């Protein structure tokens, strides 16, 4: 009972940390968009797009953290882990659209740079470093993978605001308005590079590609290493969300083994597969005189 209460309390703390970070990030993103427009700074607008993407990521992480402890149902037999993939897909689309918008705004400014309102830019940069830095500090207390990934996202944001801070300080002393669109283009290209990379892996997981071909080969070798197994077919190794992997396979046995031998083989296979940290496994045995129903 004590253990259950402890884990429930831990889950509540995790949800609270992620929820708090989400609302902080969304509020600050709205301030950024307004601030970027008021200060005439494309660099701040570019960082606002980045923060909007992070807000969506955090929002889905928060939603997922509520669903993660919920039991699988007859309708959602694998649970709700694929919500994180759906979140990643939406996040990618939002960031691509936002990045195109920023590039359309920033590139023409290279030919005709406009001086941003430096004082407002400096104030927002200081606020950005403080807010994102504090959010990183809050999430560092968490131990889950979700919290660790989000804290890295927010640390990137904090470093982005450090760059805005440095540019705004330079602009206070030197009349180089071109620094603002240059910084926004650099931010945007960095965002697009990461989005395209993540979108590629997210789409592959959506299409139920193997999360790691090398691991799949090792699993196949491990199953074939048993002397009772003649061949393996219909092997499907895929991922629910990039972390929780699923395996199904048909094993053709060399002969008509008795029940005790098959029970021992099942135990051996379970031990062989334990090292691969699979969330779900389904192994079907077929005898030599059987016709596979999936052929």
CATH topology of the largest domain: Alpha-lytic protease prodomain-like
CATH architecture of the largest domain: Up-down Bundle
User: What series of H and E elements makes up the topology?
Assistant: HHHHHHHEEHE
Based on DSSP secondary structure assignment, what is the total number of beta strands?
3
Specify Rg, calculated over alpha carbons. 26 Å
The domain tally reads 2
Please mark out the parts with pLDDT under 50 across 5 or more consecutive residues, or reply none: 1-10
Please give the largest β-sheet. 3 strands, mixed
Task: Please count the helical segments.
Answer: 8
User: Can you list the strand order of the major beta sheet?
Assistant: 1-2-3
Structural class: mainly alpha
CATH class of the largest domain: Mainly Alpha
Q: What global shape is seen?
A: elongated
* Overall pLDDT confidence: 82
Distance between the termini: 49 Å
Q: Beta-strand percentage? A: 5-15%
| Helical proportion, percent range | 55-70%
CATH superfamily of the largest domain: Cation efflux protein transmembrane domain
């Amino acid at each position: 009972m004590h253990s259950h209460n402890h884990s429930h309390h831990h889950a509540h703390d995790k949800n609270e940390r992620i929820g708090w970070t989400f609302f902080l990030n969304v509020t600050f993103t709205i301030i950024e968009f307004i601030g970027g427009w008021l200060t005439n700074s494309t660099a701040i607008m570019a960082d606002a797009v980045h923060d909007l993407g992070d807000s969506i990521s955090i929002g889905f992480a928060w939603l997922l953290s509520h669903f993660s402890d919920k039991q699988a149902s007859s309708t959602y037999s694998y649970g709700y882990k694929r919500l994180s993939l759906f979140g990643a897909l939406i996040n990618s689309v939002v960031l691509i659209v936002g990045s195109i918008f920023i590039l359309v705004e920033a590139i023409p400014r290279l030919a005709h740079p406009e001086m941003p309102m430096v004082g407002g830019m400096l104030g927002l940069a200081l606020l950005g470093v403080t807010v994102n830095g504090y959010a990183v500090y809050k999430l560092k207390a968490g131990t889950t993978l979700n919290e660790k990934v989000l804290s890295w996202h927010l640390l990137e944001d904090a470093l982005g605001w450090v760059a805005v801070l440095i540019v705004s300080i330079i602009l206070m002393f030197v009349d180089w308005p071109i620094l603002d669109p240059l910084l926004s283009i650099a931010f945007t290209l960095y965002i697009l590079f990461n989005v395209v990379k993540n979108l590629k892996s997210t789409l592959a997981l959506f299409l139920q590609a193997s999360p790691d071909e090398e691991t799949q080969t090792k699993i196949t070798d491990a199953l074939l290493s048993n002397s009772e197994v003649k061949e393996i077919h219909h092997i499907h190794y895929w991922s629910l969300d990039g972390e929780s992997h699923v395996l199904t396979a048909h094993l053709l046995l060399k002969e008509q083994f008795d029940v005790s031998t098959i029970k021992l083989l099942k135990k051996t296979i379970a031990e062989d597969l334990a090292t691969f940290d699979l969330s779900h496994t389904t192994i079907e045995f077929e005898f030599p005189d059987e016709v596979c129903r999936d052929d």
